[in-house]
Amino acid sequence: MQTSDTEYVEVTYNHRNKGQHAVYGAGTGTFYGYRAGGQKFLVHIDDQKAQPTLFVAVPQTPTQPKITYQEPKQAPPVPQPLKQEVEDAVLMGGFIEKMKQPVDQEKVLSGDMDNIIKPLDLQTIPGVTPAVARSLQSSKLDTKEAILAAGVEGLIEVRGIAEARAGAIISYLSEQE
Description:
The protein is an alpha+beta fold. Helix 4 packs antiparallel against helix 5. The termini are far apart. The chain is 26% helix and 24% strand.
């Protein structure tokens, strides 16, 4: 006997016995497995009609598709051109330093990389030892521009730099491009 899905209905098995036992349909003789009272399963329509008190039809409610509303996505904010603050961790002399310096994006985009502020390896300057390099970094004097702006007077305030060493550092950096 060939059957289709439309010939079956969901029922609640209304039997006093709560334990598992063999369940057969009286109309078709179909074996529905081992079931307990109160279980829900599919049975043939003829079996449900033959024993309506044992196989109680579960009322079918048509299901509506769930409609969800999605907010339209907003366009991302337009980036501000030219100046941008850059924060990079730079490894210098064995210490990680935070460097915050404005970067001119126009120069970066145009390829003019020579005029962009670059970190300076302080130990390449004659007379600057690792200890003096750390002192300069902690005083925020870690670029050529910052050291030249501080001058001899600013450098002698840094621990480990006397007037002679400050003059040598300034003259060395002034000769560099």
